[in-house]
Amino acid sequence: MTANELHNGPQNGLPANDIQTTSSETSRPTTSIQLAGKVIAITGANRGIGLGIANSCLDNGASHVYSIDIGETGDDFAAVAKRFPGKLHAIKADVTNEDTVTAAVDQIVQEAGSIHGMVVNAGRTKHKPALDFTREEIDQLWSINLYGAFFCARVAARAFIKLGVKGSVVFTASMASYRPNKRVPSAPYGASKAGVRNMTHTLAMEWAQYNIRVNSISPGLVNTAMTYWVPQQPDWEQQLKYYGGMPRLAEVEELGGAYVYLLSDAASYTTSIDIPVNGVIGIC
Predict the structure, then answer these.
(1) What predicted TM-score, i.e. pTM, was given to this entire model?
(2) Catalytic residue among 38, 87, 168, 189
(3) Is residue 13 part of a domain?
């Protein structure tokens, strides 16, 4: 059904399937979920979830993936880079400083010729009772998880608009944005990730006019250095039986498919959504 039909009904009394369509309406959407020829930037991809996303992007044909990270790379990063010679790169930048992120994206465009996707993944967590949080601890969380996320998305959008690219921004949110982790709550962390999901919807609305799509992924419990303690809890097996769902943590690579889809042209009409990837486990 055409836009005119939605408002006025079929034109000239003809059935909808007899109405001529424009060339843009008859062009075939992309149905292959792959990233061939795309240049993807991922913040916080020197390790953990970000590196798993980078690996998935390269496995699905991305021409170049850039990690924008304040830290150093390690053995895990080197192993992925060895699998994809000349395709995985690291640029040092502080996501809480918009100027350094702008410089990083400018470098990507200069080296790779363009940028097509930005995964806003860098973040931090801290779990303690709300009454015990210091102002400094809250500022540290929100400066990366909220300010940093906003800055990185905005830098990417400006680059997409300048280059005339139909870009994709994908935030890493969290299941903690939906509900608290009862065992280790963190009101400031959950609030920051809920802010990311709201940011997703608002920026998607604002930037649709530029053909920029904005979505988010909400991981549940993922097997990273930050969650090493989770399966070490003495009642972990009992928790899994109680909460249900898949009885294990996710591996970082298991998140990649959702990111690849949202970055791909197969998601050309997908914007302003969040995809929970949590194995139906009833805890964050």
Answers:
(1) 0.85
(2) 189
(3) no
